[in-house]
Write a structure and sequence with these properties.
alpha+beta; 4-stranded mixed β-sheet; Rossmann fold; 4 strands; 11% strand
Length: 176
């Protein structure tokens, strides 16, 4: 008889590989710009070439694990960058990647694609309110509080493990 309880014996949270949004953010920060230069919606932001290579490297590492230590289930955010990371990393493992809305990035509302500098410049009262409340409790206009999205993510894991724009990888207790 196994001492393992129901659910996975191992849970890995994997952040997506480098995305075009990460590159746009770095460029905006470096230039002191108030907005990111992106021509797609946040859910549609793809991986950069480096991000695709990172996902491939994860796949190589996973494939090299002993079979009984490899993931047996994968859940991913439906956002393109996370889903592509999960699909590339598990391509050689024969695992179906399932999406779960609770793993998506939080909604930043009217501050979507804005840098911190841009928010402070254009919306100083909101920036002060965020500083007062803290990033996990602050809810941007038209968006959601960090705590709200984190709690929604945690709802899918009994031990209150959270993930956002991530993929969750688990190993079945029966395979250990």
């Amino acid at each position: 008889m196994s001492d393992a309880g129901p659910g996975p014996s191992v849970l890995w949270l994997v952040r997506h590989g480098e995305s075009m949004g990460n590159l746009a953010d770095a460029q905006a920060q470096e230039a002191g710009a108030g907005r990111l230069e992106l021509d797609v919606r946040d859910p549609d932001v793809e991986l950069s070439d480096t991000g695709r290579a990172q996902a491939g490297a994860l796949g190589t590492w996973l494939a090299a694990l002993p079979e009984d230590e490899r993931p047996t289930a994968v859940l991913s955010s439906p956002f393109a960058r996370a889903l592509t990371t999960a699909q590339l990393a598990t391509a050689d493992l024969g695992i179906r990647v399932r999406t779960d809305e609770r793993l998506r990035e939080r909604d930043f509302g009217m501050f979507d694609r804005m840098t911190g500098a841009g928010i402070r410049e254009q919306f100083p009262d909101e920036a002060a309110r965020r500083d007062m409340l803290g990033k996990f409790y602050y809810r941007p206009p038209g968006g959601e509080a960090g705590r709200t999205s984190r709690c929604a993510s945690a709802a899918c894991w009994p031990p209150r493990v959270c993930g956002t724009t991530a993929s969750a990888w688990s190993s079945s207790p029966t395979r250990r």
